[in-house]
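tl;dr need the bound structure. longer version: we got a ligand (flavin-adenine dinucleotide) that a collaborator sent over and nobodys looked at where it sits. i said id run it. heres the input, straight from their email, havent touched it
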Amino acid sequence: MALAPDPMLPRRARVLASRQDTRDTWTLELELDGAAPLPFAPGQFNMLWPFGVGEAPISICGDPAEPARIVHTVRAVGAVSQAIAAAAPGAVLGLRGPFGHGWPTVQAIGHDVLIVAGGIGLAPLRPVILELLAHRGQYGRAALLYGARTPADALYGHELDAWRARGLQVLTTVDVADRAWTGAVGVVTRLIPRAEVDPARTVAMVCGPDVMMRFTAQELTARGFPAARVHLSLERNMRCAVALCGHCQYGPTLLCRDGPVLTWERLRPLTSVREL
Amino acid sequence: MTAPPTLRLARADLDALLDAVRADGWTVLGPTVREEAIVYDRVDRAADLPAGWTDVQAPGRYRLERRADEALFGYAVGPHSWKRALHPADVRLWRASRTADGFAVDDAPPAAERTAFLGVRACELAAIAIQDRVLLDGPYPDPIYRARREATLLIAVQCGTAGGTCFCASMNTGPGVTGGADLTLTELLEPAHAFVVEVGSPRGAAIVARLASPPPPATEPERAAAGAVVARTAASMGRTLDDPARVPAALQETYDHPRWDDVAQRCLTCANCTMVCPTCFCTQVSDTTDLTGDHAERWRRWDSCFTLEFTHVHGGSVRQTARSRYRQWLTHKLSTWHDQFGTSGCVGCGRCITWCPVGIDITEEVRALLAPAAPAPGGAQ
Ligand SMILES: Cc1cc2nc3c(=O)[nH]c(=O)nc-3n(C[C@H](O)[C@H](O)[C@H](O)COP(=O)(O)OP(=O)(O)OC[C@H]3O[C@@H](n4cnc5c(N)ncnc54)[C@H](O)[C@@H]3O)c2cc1C
Ligand code: SF4
Ligand code: SF4
């Protein structure tokens, strides 16, 4: 993948557009100097640096077919993510990346695909959906199960219908509904029985809060989805993103190098260890 | 090519050797006595070395004592390791300034002064090899470490004394130097104070070639005496890691062992053990800006898995308890390091035992964790 000569040096990425998605979440479109492409695999992330504030790992959520248009969806939770989310068109952020080992989009060719996302967890899965829809014929049946806290917290609402129209089964649920909500209410795992995929021949990709991913993976394996084909994207503290700082260790793995996407087969024995 | 020569250097000629090293363009770092410990610092003459000193080490204890002789390398290892020179505790990665088109990064490539390490022990060579593996052999080699490592000359000295907390013999990393050094010295105290010198590389040979009066080959008795030094040190080592081959896999079955609660009662999470360890490599980065806000710097500093901040993610730290942080450290050193880097993360130098303020002994903890009486394994399920 295209990298600056020293992966610790940030490159300039100019904000082209910014859109507020929810109360606390913004989507930015960025461009490197000279509109240089940044080829990436779905599930990879960049380290974004608002000048002088600090760096944060943020997943790439743009279209892999358009590598010059770098898209990030950021939830403002602390100093760094707030500064990124507040970057207006014209602002310049530092960018290092792409890093990490992403979703098994190639391995999924010829299989059914089940995508389960919670909250901002839909962001790193958006490139998978775009790639799948661009090559729809190469995959079997495909479903997206998406859970958010409230209808107002759901991401990419404007895109869900378009995805549905292009051959993706889309089911949504919220923890707390409002009057206008017509989807399901409750945790996302409850949607699993309604996914129109064949467990035995499905590649599943799951991203969301730790607890949501654990329950989802357990439910999927209980329903016959093979653990080796259930993939989760984990979050840990990351300082360097190049396997040198030691922060993202998760038992025997270094998440920035071996992940952030790992199979449930590999993760299952680790997730039951508290404070690993 | 003939076999690398083994030479005899009289004690009185050590200054000539140091001069030759410096004449070849190397600054010498070596053992010196500072603030009641033997630490690595600049060495210009043999008189800067800790003649007649030894270190008495035990869990949580370190003390210098006079020896009955004038040995220059008659100690084990001190609180410093060579990682201070190769993987500095505090280093600026880059500077950036705001510009009309955003910012500009000043990315001067890392520079390194040619440095000779004098008095490198076998375990320290092993530790450098481990840091090479971590910092150079991964997908993104660290340019700072690489520049420094390439500008390093390694002059090893065989251990004549086993330190009170050493267990390198059981880790298969010492006490004998088996390779990896440019020159290897064995200090002989009788019949005359001298060094047996083995040349281990062309760089080492270049230094020997600079000596005005070339040293003679070591005699057969001198070579035998040198071998006996290492054998004696190995035999006097009082500590072992039991059954090291079994440890990496066995530890992964201990995540729920009550011993972790026990050690957590004693551990102060002070991070001393990670600072003195010659292989611990973890770092954090922090950004600073000047008052105008137009100039920023990124610094990299040693970090420790014993801090709460180490695992901070939005919403809190993953490893909240001392139990989980000590467990992370020990299992990383002896178990998951193998998974991550294909090698152990421990060389048995004993520093973490000596410099732990409460004397926690990694070998003793492993013994307790893997004792046959332990609860049924499989706790990780
Ligand atoms: C692989 C990966 C992908 C991610 N993708 C996204 C995404 O697409 N969108 C999104 O909104 N968030 C994403 N995150 C989470 C995001 O990185 C954190 O929310 C962000 O780092 C929080 O920093 P903060 O200063 O804003 O928050 P705070 O919680 O205030 O953090 C305080 C300090 O803790 C440290 N810190 C907290 N979390 C992390 C972390 N994960 N790594 C390093 N340091 C940390 C920082 O030093 C920070 O300054 C991702 C995280 C990972 C590991
Ligand atoms: S863990 Fe302890 S004994 Fe092992 S190398 Fe580190 S400091 Fe030395
Ligand atoms: S084991 Fe000892 S040195 Fe290490 S953090 Fe605990 S108290 Fe400090």
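gonna send this back to them w/ a short note. The mean pLDDT of chain A is 94.
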